[in-house]
Amino acid sequence: MSEKRTEIGELGEFGLIDQLNSKIKIRHQETLKGIGDDAAVLDAGDKVKVITTDLLLEGVHFDLSYAPLHHLGFKAVAVNISDVAAMNAFPKQITVSIALSNRFSVEAVEALYAGINAAAEHYNVDVIGGDTTSSRSGLVISVTAIGEVEKGKEVYRSGAKVNDIICVTGDLGAALIGLQVLEREKEVFMADPNMKPQLDKYSYVTGRQLKPDARMDIIHELKELDVVPTAMMDVSDGLASELFHICKESNVGVMIYEDKLPIDKQTFDTAVEFNLDPITCVLNGGEDYELLFTISQDDFHKLEKHPDIHFIGHVTKADEGKFMVTKSETAVQLKAQGWVHF
Ligand SMILES: [Mg+2]
């Protein structure tokens, strides 16, 4: 008799995480939050510690034919800091583990670590450990970040309330468009290695893909303005997908407005050049590492004039669903695409 075999693709990434999570038991009362948010949350007296980890695989998450090692080292740290930010916490320490093959020289590893150290300085964190091992195939980088915040100021995905205002920082979709540009230039180069890549006019979008910056600046500003979001997460898989997480965890619905969605002009123009719908890129593009959060209406006046925070809609009751009002004023149902890594 053959054993039952379910393809991972049938469950999807989130389905798989849900299934594995359902078998995990929390044994210590210090563990305030385990799996299921941007970071785990641990009780540490009058503070909480947040811990998050990410695994980056060559050929899956990055391509060394266009990702410089220095940028890659920076990005590996930044994506974890972004999850610390998403909890409204401040990063303190990171550990860095890598697996590499003899394809990499000492100089290459030094370049990677120069990027890691640059990020450690930028985010004011200490590199406190890690592991280095050999890999038979590609480069693997795993970073764990530890942060902290005053107890009660940590922000989960689960706190959004009806009538809260939905906010997003920066602009969206650029990292996805940057990836399209880099992939196209790679193909051109493979076909004719004498071709010089034409990247100058795409520098913003390629920069967003290659060297994202976690929005710790916003976390510091929210603290200064005395605003604690009701729910928050970072935009790593695409706005629509992240909104679905907040809706699920907070048991609410959302109404967002197409004309409020922030998109950079270069992202818009390049999307059109690639025959992609710019709004689809904003809704479903991954790796922007901006912050998506909800605030109480009482806090609106504190953020109203902020140049880099956009108010894209409001929270509704769960049974009102998840909708986007288009520029032609029709309400369309949001779909969460997210990224399928498998
Ligand atoms: Mg996250």
Automatic annotation (TrEMBL):
* E.C. no: 2.7.4.16
Q: Where does ATP bind?
A: Y113, G130, D131, R157, S236
**Where do the annotations place Mg(2+) 3 binding?**
D38, D83, D234
Residues that coordinate or bind Mg(2+) 5: D237
Any idea which positions bind substrate?
H61, E287, W339
Pathway(s) where this gene product acts? Cofactor biosynthesis; thiamine diphosphate biosynthesis; thiamine diphosphate from thiamine phosphate: step 1/1
PurM-like C-terminal domain mapped to chain residues = 214-324
According to UniProt, the reaction catalysed is: thiamine phosphate + ATP = thiamine diphosphate + ADP
Task: Indicate which residues the UniProt annotation says bind Mg(2+) 4.
Answer: D38, T52, D83
Its keywords, alphabetically, are: ATP-binding, Kinase, Magnesium, Metal-binding, Nucleotide-binding, Thiamine biosynthesis, Transferase
Q: Which GO terms describe its molecular function?
A: thiamine-phosphate kinase activity
**Where is Mg(2+) 2 annotated to bind?**
D54, D83
Sites binding Mg(2+) 1 sit at: T53, D54, D131
Query: What function is annotated for this protein?
Result: Catalyzes the ATP-dependent phosphorylation of thiamine-monophosphate (TMP) to form thiamine-pyrophosphate (TPP), the active form of vitamin B1.
Descriptive protein name: Thiamine-monophosphate kinase
